[in-house]
Amino acid sequence: MLKFIFGNPEAKKERAERRAREAALEDSRENLFKAADESVTRAFACAAELKFGVPIATKLDAAVWDYGNAIRLYTQLEVVEALTEQETGTMSKLQTHKAGVKSDPARFKATWTKDKVELLEKLETRAEVSQRLAELKEVIAQKKALVNFKIIGDRLLRSGRENIMAKKVAEPRRVIPIMREAYENARFTRTEEAVAMLQGPMTAIAVVRLQAYWRGVTGRRKASRLKWSKDKGRLEASSLFLALDTDHGGTLSREELSDGLSLVGYSEEEIAA
Predict the structure, then answer these.
(1) What are the angstrom distances between the C-alpha of 236 and each of 37, 118, 248, 256?
(2) What is the pLDDT of residues 37-52, one digit of tens each?
(3) In sequence order, what are the residues at sequence separation of 6 or more whose Cβ sits closer than 8 angstroms to the Cβ of residue 230?
(4) Count of CB atoms situated within 10 Å of the CB of 65
(5) Which residue, 219, 147, 133, 222, is CA-closest to 182?
(6) How far apart are CA 132 and CA 73, in angstroms?
(7) Residue 206 · residue 167 · CB < 8 Å
(8) CA–CA distance, 259 with 248 (Å, rounded to integer)
(9) 250: which DSSP letter?
C-alpha cells in the first residue's frame, strides 16, 4: 500500500539513473558536435592564411589534420555520410510537413510526431555536415595545388642560383619561363622579384665575359683568328645578344641596345651615332 502511495523506491532510482545517463549522453553529443564544428572552422581559417599570395604549407598541414579530426568526430555522431536520393526526398517531405504545422496547426500538428521531428533534425544535420566537409575538402585540394606550384618554382629558383654560382647561365635562362609560370600558377605575388634574382646575375656574368672577350688581349687575338666564322664565332655572337637581351624576350629594343653598349664602355655620343 505504501509503495502504491509513495511509489517504488527502486523504480524511482532506476528512472533517475536513466535520466542521468540520457543527460550525460546528450552532453557528450553536444561536446562532440562542438569539437567537430571547431575543427572545421579552424581548418577553413588555416587554409585561408597566405604569405605573398600563397597558402602557408604548415598551416595547410594543420587544416588537413583538423579536417581528419572533424570526420572522426562526425563519424562517432553518425552524421558524416551524405544523404541518399531517397533520404533527400524524405527530408523534403518532412520539411514541407513542418512548414504546414506552422501555417495550419489544426490540420498538420496531430500527425507531426516526435519521431518525425527527430528524423528531420538528423537528416538536416547530416546534409549540413556533409556539405561543409565537401566544401572543406575542395578548398584544401585547391590550396595544395597552389603550394605544389610554389614548391616547383622554389626548386627551379634554387637550381638556377646554383648554376649562376658556378658561372653557368644557359640553364638559368632555360628555367626562367618555367619558373615564372609555376609562380604565377601559385599566385605568388613576388614572381618578378624571383625572376630578377636570376636575370640580374646572368646579365652581369654575360657582360663580364663580353668585356673579357672584346677588350682583353686574349679576346682580340681570338677575334682576329676566328673572323666571325664557324660555330665558335656564332657562339660569341649569341653571347653578345643574350647579354643585351635583358628581358629575355628574344628581340633587342633600342633601350636594351643602348644600356648594353653603355655597360661595356661605349659613350653616349658613340651610341647615338
Answers:
(1) 66, 83, 17, 18
(2) 999 999 999 999 999 9
(3) none
(4) 14
(5) 147
(6) 14
(7) no
(8) 14
(9) S
Q: Under DSSP, is residue 50 helix (H, G, I), strand (E, B) or coil?
A: strand
- Whether residue 203 contacts residue 247, with contact meaning beta carbons closer than 8 Å, is answered with no
Q: How many other β-carbons are positioned within 10 Å of the β-carbon of residue 170?
A: 9
Report residue 51: phi and psi, to 5°.
Answer: -135, 115
Torsion of CA 107, 110, 112, 115, to 10 degrees: -160
The grid cell for 261 is 653598349
Contacts of 123 (CB under 8 A, 6+ apart): 83, 87, 90, 91, 94
Distance CA 85, CA 46 (A): 33
- 3 state DSSP class of 83: coil
Q: Are 228 and 237 in contact (CB under 8 A)?
A: yes
Q: pLDDT grade, residue 202 (50/70/90)?
A: confident
Tell which residue, 121, 123, 122, 97, has the closest CA to residue 110: 97
CA-nearest of 191, 179, 186, 188 to 146 is 186
pTM (predicted TM-score): 0.70
Bridge partners, residue 50, by sequence? 55
Q: Are 31 and 73 in contact (CB under 8 A)?
A: no
Side chain identity at residue 115, one-letter code: D
